[in-house]
Amino acid sequence: VSRLAWETLRSVKWADDDYVWVSDYAAHILSHPDPRWHDRDVSTIEDEAGVKVIPRVLEIARKQGEGSTIYDWTRVGAAKPSRKLSYFRDLPKYGLVVGAGAWLDEIDAAVVRRREQAIDDMRRALRSIRIARTGYAYVFDAGDNMIIHPNSNIEGTEFTTRSDPKSGAPIADELKAVADADHPLHYMWDKPTDPGNYVYEKISWVRHFKEYDWYIASSVYVDELTSSSQEISRRILAVTGGIGLIAALLGGVGVWRMVGPLRVMAATAARVSAGDLDARSNIRRADEIGLLAETFDAMVGRVRKNVGELEERVRARTAELERANADLEAAAVAQRRSQTTLADVESRQRLILDAIPAAIAYLGPDEHFRFVNRAWSELVGRSKEEIVGAPLGAVIGRAAHAAIEGPLARTRSGEVVSLEYAFTHRSGRRVVTANTLIPQIGGDGATIGCFVLTRDVTDERETERRIFEAEHLKAIGQLSGGLAHDFNNLLSIIIGNLATAREKYADVEGFAAYVEPAERAARRGADLTSRLLTFARRQPMRSETIEAACLLAEIGTLLRRSLPHTVDILLDAEGGRHDFWIVADHVQMERAVVNLALNARDAMADGGCIRLVCRRLPETETSGWDEPVPPGRWIEIAVADDGVGFPEG
Question: Which pTM was predicted?
């Protein structure tokens, strides 16, 4: 049953190639009509921006319950991906996400078809409208282009240069000026039966369709609107003239009996001629005048009915036009909604790319920047606006461009290239970067662009250097320790033999004068080996009571032999006393003072004075140091010089 259910679900399709897909929470496709995707792990598939497509969909579905997004995917049976809008929903009970969607190019094509169909329907509707005998409706845009017109010679042309003979102004501007006004436009125009003779008055009503910036207008000749009433008037006048002739022949009483009704009918005819189609003579007589008045009133009624039917047809056509406009507006709203959705997706992608810690840029085939994220702009010290559109050499400099010209050439040939490059940042800091150049291959197999992925590895390289130096120093310490241990064993034998010789030959005159220098030299050598063992961490720290002023005096005597003649060294013991007793390792203390004195010497290139200072500190002076100092009696040992000191910054 489960197998049949999955097979049935995979066969569900509509339109041309729209379908339903199902994935579990591990981005494993469980149902898909394309055999290439069925039962496949898609957790690593990315779009052009580097976003993992299905994991992103699963994240939105599990967080929000349902949602929609736009991404690149391959149609069933196709080789290249297309943009797709998908809607999906989480089924937490089963641990599944079900989705379906539509292809954006099909949506755009449908919108275009509906727009064109709406325009064609509106064109047919407007061409079939006739007002009076030759009146019609037409549509033009804000650029004075005639979009729809019954005359095929005028439709599709620009009528900016056509002027109103009555006012001399462009007829297009006059039509726009009365759009959505409460009054029509009266102007002079020619007739098809009398072309070029602009002496016929015409009237037009105009409305502005702001969504597309179109103007919809209708026009009719004024004489056609009044021709029906005038024709009735002429007929009535002719009948009246005949009746008057008969009355003249009949004479006397007959004349007076007919004059009154005829005057009423003449006044009614004048009202009809003026446009009042509700006018009636209301003459009720059983003679010929009554019949004439009844016929006249019936004729006016038929004219009024014809005008009413014409107005009803105009209203029906207007309703059809409004429905067509509504369909066209709905299609435009759908298109704007799709564009808004696409803009939202692009905005989210930019935010994601800016949040990625890696620096990302994209170069076009002309080596001009098309895109950079925030990390890349911060790396080169420029804003995105300065970088996008600029050539590569202008942004990174000619030297850097020359250094990566070779890797760029390899990338243009389709190769992914990795390299390191070091440069000096605008802030003066030395920066080392690891770069990966990834080509973008077009449909024809040619490289159409290049992605640049850059990481700042300055700290990593500095850490590697320090580890190397530490390991090197450790190796030197181990070697020094080994040598010092062996040399210390030799010195122990020498010192022992010298002591034995001193005791055995103590009575020999002058022997001691030779033995004592040898013993001092051997003990000095033992002291040096002890320092080497301490450096190598093989000799334990030995704390002992030391008089600090005497130690500084001995160090000063030792240093005078190694300092240049331009550098003097002085002992500055507080009060000139030698009672500064401290507990410390004699060797470590001596080495620390010697290192400070040698640093002081290096700071005085032109010579100067080094002072070895020794003084007692009150308890109040121990506050504000880099490290906390417990209360007690302390002695300060300092090395001061006349050098320039450390530079600021």
Answer: 0.31
